[in-house]
Specification:
This protein is an alpha+beta fold. The chain has three domains: 3-65, no CATH class; 73-165, DNA polymerase, domain 1 (Orthogonal Bundle); 181-321, hpI Integrase, Chain A, CATH 1.10.443. Helices cover 48% and strands 12% of the residues. The chain has 15 helices and nine strands. A hairpin with a 6-residue loop joins β3 and β4. α6 runs antiparallel to α7, α7 (193-205) runs antiparallel to α9 and α12 packs across α13 (353-360). The longest helix is centred in the middle third of the chain and has 21 residues, at 135-155. The radius of gyration is 34 Å and the shape is elongated.
Length: 406
């Protein structure tokens, strides 16, 4: 069969009036293998040469994704996760890794990155909805895919990010169901001494489970009635307990009520007593809640969740109430008491007050009573200025024959 080289490409005849065009497209950025673009055309050799010239131009300009990688979506996602490993928190990284390997890669992983379409992604998301996955879970999977494809664009693997045009299920704010004050008090009264203090602090401060578990005695100023939240504990899938910064990477100083101060003071005395029985003393930087008499180690974070479930069942609290809902209890009760949103936000450790409002907007009581009263007075004054009925002009002055004759 006839074959020829033409300005960066080649032509091979494959039959009568059938031609195969081949153009070098550089090295694959992921695998470093040499890449070629092939295309079949019909017609005369002259038409084939013209088509080859167009293909050479197309490949050189990067049109059609020819300069991208042959790497698959699965390979891209794995590389992106490795790239982000140092910047994501351990729990976020592990959550992303699980969703990528058990959902995203089995669904889209075999498709070459440069050939992935918006329709591919929409069909995949629809299949996840049909499997009854929560909208929030699908959106988390989308974040992984969109982030990976953004990286592919930066690496020059493709020109656009099709995930940005995909159709996502509507986001729904999870319903907040804080426990009632009576339930919180029942939990405190029914817990063992250590867990009672843990629940009391969590409810009074509104901190996350890991933040309360990470408390050390130097962070608790009983004389000033304050504590500082600066760290949080996380437990990896391998069982390792790690101390990390707070979610916003900022420490926050929180005032304590007198009852919580008294509970912590009594717990400190109890810790000293228990340590003395073991011939030890509480370490200066010991954990407030610890399985060791000297406070040298913290409890596993999940231990508190398990303890809450047992306590909840024992004292008759509804099974839907989670340990995390103590945080919702704090927020809703403070807002209901008229504490400014900014103060509540700072206490909870939200990055900005808008986050607090997004979660608890319907718990914020009406604070514009003065405005309502002012509008009421204005509208009442308007009633007295209404146009007169028949026989009166617009200013409320009665029109008489005597006045008309003047």
């Amino acid at each position: 069969m006839a074959r020829g080289e033409y300005g960066g490409g080649s032509i091979r005849q494959r039959g009568e009036n059938r031609w195969e065009l081949r153009v070098f497209a550089g090295r694959d950025p992921a695998t470093q293998r040499l890449r070629y673009v092939s295309r079949s055309v019909r017609g005369s050799r002259k038409a084939a040469v013209a088509a080859l010239a167009a293909l050479v131009t197309e490949v050189g300009a990067g049109d059609g994704g020819h300069k991208g990688s042959d790497a698959t979506v699965g390979e891209l996602v794995e590389q992106w996760l490795e790239l982000r490993r140092e910047t994501l928190s351990l729990t976020t990284y592990e959550a992303y890794l699980g969703k990528a390997r058990y959902r995203l890669i089995p669904g889209l992983g075999s498709i070459p990155v440069r050939k992935l379409t918006v329709r591919d992604i929409d069909v995949f998301y629809r299949s996840l909805r049909e499997k009854k996955l929560a909208a929030s879970t699908i959106r988390q999977i989308h974040n992984i895919l969109a982030g990976s494809l953004d990286q592919a664009v930066r690496w020059g693997w493709r020109k656009d990010n099709p995930a940005r045009w995909a159709t996502l299920p509507p986001a729904r704010q999870a319903e907040v169901r804080p426990p009632a004050p009576a339930e919180v008090m029942a939990a405190i009264e029914g817990a063992d001494p250590e867990f009672a203090v843990f629940v009391r602090v969590a409810a009074a401060v509104g901190s996350r489970r890991g933040e309360v578990a990470a408390l050390r005695w130097p962070a608790v100023d009983l004389d000033a009635g304050e504590l500082v939240i600066s760290k949080g504990l996380i437990e990896s899938k391998t069982g390792a307990i790690l101390e990390k910064d707070t979610k916003t990477h900022q420490a926050r100083r929180i005032a304590l009520d007198a009852g919580t101060v008294a509970a912590l003071r009594a717990w400190r005395d109890e810790c000293e007593r228990r340590a003395a029985l073991c011939g030890a003393s509480v370490l200066p930087d010991g954990y407030v809640f610890s399985p060791q008499p000297d406070g040298s180690l913290p409890w596993r974070p999940y231990r508190w969740t398990s303890a809450w479930r047992r306590l909840r069942d024992r004292v008759g609290i509804d099974k839907s109430v989670r340990l995390h809902d103590l945080r919702h209890f704090t927020a809703t009760r403070l807002l209901d008491a008229g504490v400014p949103v900014k103060t509540v936000s700072g206490r909870l450790g939200h990055a900005r007050p808008a986050t607090t409002l997004n979660i608890y907007a319907h718990f914020v009581p009406a604070t514009d009573r003065l405005a309502a009263d002012a509008m009421g007075r204005i509208l009442s004054l308007g009633d007295s200025l209404r146009p007169a009925e028949s026989g009166k002009d617009g200013g409320g002055v009665e029109v008489t024959d005597a006045l008309l004759d003047q």
